[in-house]
Amino acid sequence: MTFLEQLNEWRTSHSILFGADTAPYCLDQRRRYQGRALAVARPNSTEQVQQLVRLCAEHQIAIVPQGGNTSLCGAATPLNDGQSIVISFERMTQIVQVDADNNTITVQAGVTLAQVQQAALAAKRLFPANWAAAQSCQIGGALATNAGGVNVLRYGNMRELTLGLEVVLADGELWEGLRGLRKDNTGYDLKQLFVGSEGTLGLITQAVLRLYPLPTAHATALVAVESPAAAVDLLRGLQAEVGDRVTSFELISAPCLDLLHQHFPRLPQPFQPIPAWCVLIELSDGGDSALLTDRLAEYLYAHGCMEAYVAQSPTEAADFWRLRESIPEAQRIDGVSIKHDISLPIGAVPDFLQKCDTEMLSSFAGARIVAFGHLGDGNLHYNLFLADKTAGVYALEPAVNDLVYRHVAAYNGSISAEHGIGQLKRATLQDARSDLELHMMRQIKATLDPLGLFNPGKVL
């Protein structure tokens, strides 16, 4: 039986799509990468994933794993050669177990972030990972890209939130590593090979994730600051005052607020006029929200933050967060921009912004820099709009990237903080990592995927 004949036989049981039905799975979220696939398979169990991988290995057909298709780097999009299949995990949506005593939750790869959060909440626990695509992104994809979000400052990214994995390997064998242990020193920590590997080493089918006690107190504030340096000073002072109660600390520039005012005029705009910079702060703890809110307000007042809006209700806090979470959509509506997801030592962020902005504005006429991000963990989304707001602007992307990444390298930063490498940064990775590091990565890839069938054209 040929490869396609076997897929056709599995058309119903494995939910196989052919032809025009594959189109939505072959276009990335940013509509930048358009690929082609022989078929799209939508298994509903680990066993079906194993069967598909074994079939592909037998016929040497490449596999592109796909979660919610929310990748910003083309990591989940097939190449345009039409020689691969997409394995979508959208039907693997089972919450396998919530263990409140052990503070863990076990889920299949297709469960969305929002569903994990809701299941944890039902058990009076917190799953702290949080970002704008929570309703659509799937846990398998979040693990494959080591996703971050707004709460990394306190809880870490997906790597820190993962205790165990179940992974289908390149020959279809199953690695059953679903352990919910905080301490396990029995050799190499194999799960960390797969977290952040973007589906190039194995297919994650289940995961055991950390849960935390549910905070009962929250305090949220939107605060104008004179500069990124002042924001760093505020962060350090607040951490000295309340410790790890600082859950999120987001930096937002004036161009972000301008875009929000232009494209979402119904969103609250507390600042008049708009300040050059502001920060969105959230504290969380046990106890009473009113007491924590009062403490935050007192600290901000005592330290001269005269233009500070401290949320007086959960609704007002949610409005502040809607501002932050709407920035990417406002950018999308405004047009095509050249985007960067970078990380730097926190103390280097102000100097980076000053030097990179100066060179950028002098090098590209009409440049508008839209910078925002997770200052608490040094992750900036540093995006550039030019006069051309169509895809034609990508002709300037190599020159813009060279400038940005040169400044990133000067501070020993990273070209990818939380979005991954995918197709977008594959070539750039060759300059961002040493020859030895790249050699070790290729050795790992060759060992775990000797035929090179898992997500070709991504990362390496």
From TrEMBL:
Cofactor(s) needed: FAD
GO molecular function, one term: catalytic activity
Gene3D superfamilies: 3.30.465.10, 3.30.70.2190, 3.30.70.2740, Uridine Diphospho-n-acetylenolpyruvylglucosamine Reductase, domain 2, Vanillyl-alcohol Oxidase, Chain A, domain 4
Ranges of residues in domain FAD-binding PCMH-type: 33-214
Alphabetical GO biological process terms: respiratory electron transport chain
Family classification: Belongs to the FAD-binding oxidoreductase/transferase type 4 family.
SUPFAM superfamilies: FAD-binding/transporter-associated domain-like, FAD-linked oxidases, C-terminal domain
Keyword entries, A-Z: FAD, Flavoprotein
Highest taxon, organism lineage: Bacteria
Protein's organism: Chitinibacter bivalviorum
Any Pfam family the entry gives: FAD-oxidase_C
This protein's name: FAD-binding oxidoreductase
